[in-house]
Amino acid sequence: MNNLLLFGAGRSSLYLIEYLQKWCVANLCALLICDKDISYAKNNIQNQEGLTFTELDIFDQAKVEALVKDSRMVISLLPAALHIHIAKLCLEHNKNLGTASYISDEMKALHQEAKDIGLIFLNECGLDPGIDHMSAMQMMDEIKDEGGVINSFESYCGGLVTNDSDGDNPWKYKFSWNPRNVVLAGAGAPAQFLHNNELKMVPYHQLFKHIETFEIDGAGIFEAYANRDSLKYMGLYNLEQVASMKRGTFRKGGYATAWQVIVELGLTDDSTPMHLKVGTTLSQWLAAYLPDGHGDLKSEVKAITHCSDAEIEKLDWLGLFGNDTLPMNDGTSAQILEEILKPKWHLMPTDKDLIVMLHKIGYIQNGMQQWRSVHMTLEGVSETHTAMAKTVGLPLAIACKLILEHKIEARGVLAPVNSEFYTPILKELEMFGIQF
Amino acid sequence: MNNLLLFGAGRSSLYLIEYLQKWCVANLCALLICDKDISYAKNNIQNQEGLTFTELDIFDQAKVEALVKDSRMVISLLPAALHIHIAKLCLEHNKNLGTASYISDEMKALHQEAKDIGLIFLNECGLDPGIDHMSAMQMMDEIKDEGGVINSFESYCGGLVTNDSDGDNPWKYKFSWNPRNVVLAGAGAPAQFLHNNELKMVPYHQLFKHIETFEIDGAGIFEAYANRDSLKYMGLYNLEQVASMKRGTFRKGGYATAWQVIVELGLTDDSTPMHLKVGTTLSQWLAAYLPDGHGDLKSEVKAITHCSDAEIEKLDWLGLFGNDTLPMNDGTSAQILEEILKPKWHLMPTDKDLIVMLHKIGYIQNGMQQWRSVHMTLEGVSETHTAMAKTVGLPLAIACKLILEHKIEARGVLAPVNSEFYTPILKELEMFGIQF
Fold first, then answer.
1. What is the pLDDT of residues A265-317, one digit of tens each?
2. How far apart are CA A226 and CA A250, in angstroms?
3. Which residue among A247, A339, B185, B434 is least packed, with the fewest CB closer than 10 Å?
4. What integer pLDDT is reported at residue B319 of this predicted model?
5. Does B214 fall in a domain?
6. Residue A151 and residue B57: Cα distance in Å, rounded?
7. Chain B CA closest to residue A226
């Protein structure tokens, strides 16, 4: 009953572990860290006082249940689809739960039951979702307190790398997050948002063409493409009456128009497994997506997608026109593309990642249209102590401390959109350099 | 035990009913016709000797089971997803089954069990799939018998209307088949085919751009876009070694490039329900898919899709730039589009539909590359007695007769690719004017 229990010890776990480790040491309990492979966390945390590492199959129901039963609170950094199994055990054994993932419909369905028992199932308490909710709600609550009526909400976030870390990579992007999610960003449904009281739908195959540009003081110029469904945040944020509502993702200049070419060609298809001969080259794989696919592939790509030399250069840098053999022969094109990108967009030991977040709020005050923008940028320290791991892990770690110290009154399945979460968490994040 | 049992009495049922009615009368049994709404069949069949019409909820398991149990053989023209329920009852009560639909994975899974009991579950015995299989297999078996080695297979089919029936419709297309399938044609996965030993993948948002043109003697010029997965037919047709394998769909000139604009804009999205205000106009709905969506929408569509005036004219004829209110406010864009198209592409009482099918086979004979093409065209008689209903219904009806008369030896889950099916069926179809 004295263990704090963490499932998932991957790239986003280090800061969370290090923060909660201090709390555990001070409060004479152990932090039990479980994953099918705990080597990443074990190798990258130097002081291991108060930590117990357990290698565990998360589908070993009996073991997982015994651990949950014996814990003080449970935190899950597992892939989002696995949270629900943990949540059901928490319900059964009367434990609070924290995750950094979006609230799934299955999780949402547990709300009343968790609330009735008096449990807290906190979700969406990382970076995006997480810090975005908290900083936006704090900003909007301030505007409302000053008598403003909000009529426009825009929020953007990007997990990028610093300019010094770009190297010769013309995409100016490296993976600080799940590569598969980057490859499939936006796939499956059109992006939806509201602009001046008009609904806007952007089909996936047009998504990276319709970008907006933002300059952020001291950080540079960023392009934003629209995130999936911005409309559903109108309810969560109490913004049912706004004329504009948009959430988006930042990339550095040139990424989106080049990724648009990849999408238009069809190279992100995840529906159809291919079975390619061993020895198939990248350009042969590309040629399958070109009606002709012979002769000058660059010219054919330009003709089909109406792209410019700048985009061709980025595809060329990935080796798509070359004769290297594919890293994978059986799989969807999205899977093949992920394997091509992984070594190309790999964060090097000296690289530093970069988080950029921007909120732009419009409101009526004293009969006048007003605008307020805030932004946050944060650089990583190293390949392992990334800004991504820090901004995903610390909010959840601080929230867990608040829950453990009985400072949260709300019950049920929650996101951190109320001040009992955002005020203390944002305040403490400032001490870690995470500041708007 | 003496009834012949038909589930599904919609647009494709008339010829099948009329054919099997004669057989039933001659063989002293009844043809029992069941659907949730039997008015279409009842109103359009004049001589009803030997026919019994039963209105029935297909999900009323007890009633359906009693009918199956008491039948001589079962035919299903229900939506394809419902066949499996009927098939399981047929298995339980030892009845043969006929459908015109593609063999689903669930249906395929019943093969061994059906075979062991000695049952025939015949599928894919309509037009496409159906007549295409049979005519292609007959043609290829002839080529093989003459010593040819097939190295290229192409097959195309279209359900169209005669030139006289085009009227002022610039699309030169009307619905003679399920409108939803026409709206969603090709959606969800890239088309795959083999061209000169090279795999070709065509993403949905490019599908109607990559067309081939064919001239068919006496019938005119047709454009073909690639069907979903042509590769899976290599196994069914024993064509594992061919260099080219492609199946496609015919449209009249101009349709595909205009439909491409609809797809590129995102108007066929079926993933995201929209909830539009009552009174929303067609042009407002269109504008949601345009980044600007104000001013001259035609110019914006041209700029985004690089289309020409000919495509704009076709969209305009559908009313997409106009101020008519939407026929539906809650639904996906694919559903809304279907409701817009239904009255525009409705087959009028004097209209005649047109079936066009073409096979083009390449083979090596005496060391030389040879080519052989055959085609079939068929015009409908009226709005109800369509060429579509005839070519879907008659092959299945004739096949059922063969099964009822114990002329088929194969057992299990089958498609009509062997000569015991195709020889007698194609021969009898000729008497109905269906001839290659």
1. 999 999 999 999 999 999 999 999 999 999 999 999 999 999 999 999 999 99
2. 9
3. A339
4. 98
5. no
6. 50
7. B291
Strand order in the sheet with B71-76: B51-55, B30-35, B3-7, B71-76, B97-99, B120-122, B412-414
Number of domains in chain A: 1
Contact yes or no for A198 and B265 at CB 8 A: no
How far apart CA B207 and CA B261 sit, in angstroms, is 11
The CATH number covering residue A75 comes to 3.40.50.720
Chain A residues at the B interface, defined by Cβ less than 8 Å, are 188-190, 192, 198-203, 205-206, 210, 229, 264-266, 269, 271-272, 274, 276, 287-289, 291, 293, 304, 306, 333
Q: Which residues of A touch B199 (CB under 8 A)?
A: 274, 276, 288
Complex confidence, ipTM: 0.89
- Does A1 score more than 70 pLDDT? no
Contact yes or no for A199 and B306 at CB 8 A: no
Q: Which residues of B touch A272 (CB under 8 A)?
A: 189-190, 192, 201, 229
Query: B195 Cβ partners below 8 Å, 6+ apart?
Result: B244, B246
Does A81 reside within a domain? Answer: yes
- Mean pLDDT per 10-residue run, chain B (436 residues)? 89 94 94 94 91 92 94 95 95 97 95 97 96 97 96 97 94 93 95 96 96 92 95 93 97 96 98 95 98 94 96 98 97 98 94 96 97 96 92 98 97 96 97 95
Residue A59 lies inside a defined structural domain of this protein: yes
pLDDT at A27 over 70: yes
CB-CB under 8 Å, B205 with A269: no
Contacts of B191 in chain A (CB under 8 A): none
Give how far Cα B119 sits from Cα of A87, B4, B16, B74, B95, Å: 48, 16, 22, 12, 7
Residue B95 lies in a domain: yes
